Input
Amino acid sequence: MDSAQIIAFQAVVMFILLFFGYFLYKRKMLSNESTKQLSAITLSIVNPIVIFNSYMMEFDTTLLLGLGIAAGLAAAAHLALMAAAYIAVRKGRKNAQIERFAIIYANCGFMGIPLVNATFGSEGVFYLTGFITMFNLFMWTHGTIMMSGKKTSGFKDTAKNIGKVLLSPAIIAIALGMVFFFTGLRLPDVVQTPLDYIGSLNTPLAMIVSGATIAKAGLLRGFKCGRVYYIQIFKLALVPALLTLAFVPLAKLGVSMTVINTILIASSAPTASATIMFSYRHGKDEAYASGHFAVSTIASMATMPLVLMLSAFWAGLLGV
Output
């Protein structure tokens, strides 16, 4: 199977797991509290372990260069998503902050890691950490300012937000992983094996939590709102298509298609679950945010494979 077929297969598998989470919540086998706990475990423990494990490979300057390029492409992708968000959603509109946040910030951890890992393996996850780093930097600075509606009051607020980024589990995992990558250090098997087992929980846990969140938000509520479709066209189709057209030609300059496709997968991932959490935190309409999350997550099962198919088609035309 080619990469598009692999990701389409994985999307179906993840949809089944998503439905399982939905079923568990509807049958009251998962509560709001247990869903929050599973989400915290996935984000704070399992996800970082998957990231850390991706660095357990021999040091290679090609990999390091690819990581730097991935971070640069990730920054460019976020800037493009920001431009699209400010074009699509006018200032002063009701729920403007939620809609802009929903366009810009992707579920690159929950959805990105399982799909990239299934498609490109540890090398893809390694490059994905460049996107995750940029995601955290932008979200905890620009995202916080945008959702709160307040500009930072100076160095103190900026330093506080940067501190949150640096102390987030994902960034700590990246930092530790880089140490092991550069030095060649390895954990003893008795430690690494349990970490591998825990890391394997990432996909099922992430999808079960996503399914439960959709069940809590109400599956049909988001699908009944026409405005959600308008926003998600930008999020899942227009911007990913433009990024694909812009990034794939870089392969002619020697950029690895694995790097390019990894960033395209992350960029085309659905609206981040953080949209809901940030809405809670800043007193926004979390139910409306949940509608975006639900529609985006389900629709992405179809759109993410299409982005890779477009990438493969475009690469074929360019002869790369």
